[in-house]
Amino acid sequence: MQASDFDLEGDLTYGAQQGVNVFKNNRMVTFNAGAIGLLRQQLIDSMGTETAREQLLRFGFQSGYADFLQMQASYDWETPGDLLEVGPALHTQEGIVAVEPTEMEYDREAGEFYFNGTWHNSYEAQQHLIHNGESDHPVCWSLMGYGSAWCSGFMGIPVLEMESRCVGMGDDVCEWVIKPLDEWGEEADPYIDALEDFYEEV
Ligand SMILES: [Zn+2]
């Protein structure tokens, strides 16, 4: 299978009468984005921004890693690159964000990885603006967790995704970079600390 041929809708089993939708071995649910935005706001208000960010990074990482393992096992990918590229395709088809990759270079044996691109229509940035207003820092925390997990799973080494621009900061799009942990500076420390135990599993 090529990444460009992947169609989530075609492989989802809708069980409207039983209340259970299944994608391969995973139960999938659809929530109202506004309700998640409100939950997110309440996490920020009750825990503070730093702890809420940690928890949402972790939520995103778990989601991304589960999706990665499922997709790796469920299809016969034509090339390794198709398994990497289907991550953005799946995240887009899940209605989370439209992912536009720009540069992607990797060498799995050498542990070299660089991937950057743009997000459009991030639901997390949209909800942050509605419930919390414009931020002075990037806010697509669960999305960064998701991409970090997918690419860590693909590479077999921990990598981290961070935004450099974000709609939640008033930018017109979100821009991001994914690279190995030791290539980030101290700005990444809170993100790496939040995901430390997950990274040990990669
Ligand atoms: Zn963003």
From TrEMBL:
Write one Pfam family the protein is assigned to. XylR_N
User: Cross-referenced Gene3D superfamilies, in alphabetical order?
Assistant: Trafficking protein particle complex subunit 3
What is the superkingdom listed in this entry's lineage? Archaea
Instruction: Identify the residues that the record assigns to the 4-vinyl reductase 4VR domain, covering every copy.
Output: 118-180
Q: Which InterPro entries match?
A: NO_sig/Golgi_transp_ligand-bd, V4R, XylR_N
The protein here is known as 4-vinyl reductase 4VR domain-containing protein
Q: Which organism is it from?
A: Halorientalis pallida
